[in-house]
Amino acid sequence: MLIQQLESQGVISKTYSPFNAIERDLGRLERWAHANRMKFNKAKCKVLHVGRCNPKHNHSLGGEWLESSPEEMDLEMLIDEKLNMSWQCASHILGCIKRGTTSRWREVILPLYSALVRPHLDYCIQLWGPQ
To answer: DSSP string covering 11-61, please?
Structure first.
């Protein structure tokens, strides 16, 4: 009943969708930037579609379509569209191995890689992709 009252008063839209909300917010950002005599570098603006059932709509900022990206780096964290950070963890551990060992011999690096890095990359691989 409260929702119907809010819709009739025009407080919320009857056709609400996340896509419309994102477009509305992008429009607000563009108006704010224009009011403050600023411009967005649209080449650096990208869309990250998160989730399995995401319809992957195209979004625009200032009349230009934004590029879609499968993964982005934000605050030193690599985030992909599945919110999977396995590559980030594996890269971090690989960096620790590189900094912590002076030897670059295959006989030293390969067991460390197999024991410390590969489990992050192979986590539940048989469950997600059985053969």
So the answer is: SS-TT--HHHHHHHHHHHHHHHHHHTT----TTT-EE---STT------EE
Domain ranges of the chain: 1-70, 85-131
Q: Which H or E run contains 78? A: strand 77-80
- Quote the distance between the C-alpha of residue 74 and its chain's center: 8
How does pLDDT run along the chain (131 residues), one tens digit per residue? 445 555 565 555 555 566 677 778 888 888 888 899 988 877 877 777 776 676 777 777 777 787 777 666 666 666 666 666 666 677 777 888 888 888 888 888 888 888 877 776 665 555 555 55
Residue 62 backbone zone (phi > 0: left; psi -120 to 50: alpha; other: beta): left
This model's pTM is above 0.70: no
List, in order, residues 6 or more apart from 112 with CB less than 8 Å away: 97, 101
* CB of 84 closer than 8 Å to CB of 77: no
